[in-house]
């Protein structure tokens, strides 16, 4: 088909000149097709994952990357992401990859990491995928599947924890390009408890997770640690393990005597579960003595008002 001139009649039949009618649309459509073709030629995780391990290694070697499995397994312990490790390869080897193949080392590392590394050693890319899947499950109100995906991420985080890490700052720096560990860990605590409202097994998992978190990160902020400890107590309460709950709540008051939520949590147990309203009232009134924030004061006053209405 010959090229249509700008001043020729538009082939759409409108009677207008091509430049006044469909020329711009044709340019846009051509650009879209060109961009779609460009994207289809890029290396992706899916494309690399369709290759066998031997094919991936062979292609890496053809690019000048001297892949060695034993060395690779050491490298995935040192680096946190496929991006980091592939950049290391570019600095170490004379990589001959050009054009679309320049991205291949990255997706190759990603796929080989999944296939060859220990199951609890997850790349940042794997963690990000699992976190995204978790949020997709939450949109469908599938709390248990979300927690299952996120507990795999937690196992990956535990693999990276070293004894000298007493808070999450270091790990936050490592993963901040994709997600924040501190935000994720608080989301996991919350969703484990939510899942436990439907399935008590997840209350047990919530207790285990929150206990591990507090042991691994004892120097984390009081707000986060206190919330984790309260989730432990709340989970025991839901499981009707009141002795364990009281022990945890007593410790919470002992260690955080000026935090009103130490007393609020205790009061909630008596009001919502055991219905010993007079004891709940005592704890709420004690909480009010330490409440400085308007939000905290309002939360306590609303609970006291509920007691007055019920009695």
Give a description of the structure.
The chain starts with 22 loop residues before the first helix and ends with a helix. The longest helix is centred in the first third of the chain and has 19 residues, at 23-41. 70% of the residues lie in helices and 0% in strands. Helix 12 (222-238) runs parallel beside helix 14 and helix 14 (260-273) runs antiparallel to helix 15. It has 311 residues and is an all-alpha fold. The model is unreliable at 26-40 (pLDDT under 50). It is built from 16 helices and no strands. The protein is elongated, with a radius of gyration of 29 Å.
Keywords:
311 residues
Rg (C-alpha, Å): 29 Å
β-strand amount: under 5%
Helix content: 55-70%
Q: What are the low-pLDDT stretches, counting only 5+ consecutive residues below 50?
A: 26-40
Number-wise, the strands total 0
* Tally of separate helices: 16
Shape: elongated
Q: Give helix and strand order, one letter per element, not per position.
A: HHHHHHHHHHHHHHHH
End-to-end Cα distance:
87 Å
